[in-house]
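Ticket #222: bound-state structure for pyridoxal-5'-phosphate.
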Amino acid sequence: MPPVGMGKAYKSIETALIHAGEALDRITGAIAPPLVRTKTYRQPEFGERSKWQYSRGQNPTRSILEEKLAALEGGGWATVYSSGLAAETMLFMTLRPGDNVVIPTEVYGGTSRLLKQVMGNFGISFSTSEYKTERDIMKSIDRRTRYLFIESLTNPSLNAIDLSLVNEVSQKTGVPYVADMTFTPPCSIRAYEYGAEAVVHSISKYVAGHNDVIGGGRRYKK
Ligand SMILES: Cc1ncc(COP(=O)(O)O)c(C=O)c1O
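RESOLUTION: The complex was predicted; output attached.
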């Protein structure tokens, strides 16, 4: 596997897993990052702003997870949300009325419900593709298509979608693609190496791995 991370390169994914985004706590030397539960932060002077202001925008504990996810996925930056569907909602909110997105014929039920029952109300439509051949993908693209949305392994049947094929079509048509990599965490495959514009994870699955955390992440190119 090539070096992990763009800004800061790590020799291996194991090293990135341990170190990315983390530093020793300067006050106590704690190795595990402390949980910062504050809402607001003291600013240096009236009218001056520090990096931290209000935890809805930025919070040091959350930033560690964001940096780590970005490094593991291969750089750029990541934003974490309270769930995978929250991350997807924010992704689809980058679309405008009249835009279209192509999703796999089999896709996570929550994703299709989000598009049908929520995004449809904002004038955002979707079409479907088996994502099996170039011709099949091309058929689903029209002038309204803003991006191709895929799942690396579809939910629930775990059909594999060929990232190289999707990348080829994306390059040919100029339509970027976004990958839901929930079932293929970065230690197995990283979509950015196959040209993805953004990556989405439901963190409760293989990224967390212990069935005890709900979260979602989006990782973008620089
Ligand atoms: C492939 C896939 N994407 C997205 C989601 C949504 O994630 P969450 O349950 O964290 O909202 C799921 C949840 O099962 C999923 O399987």
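RESOLUTION NOTES: The two ends are 20 Å apart (CA to CA).
TICKET STATUS: resolved
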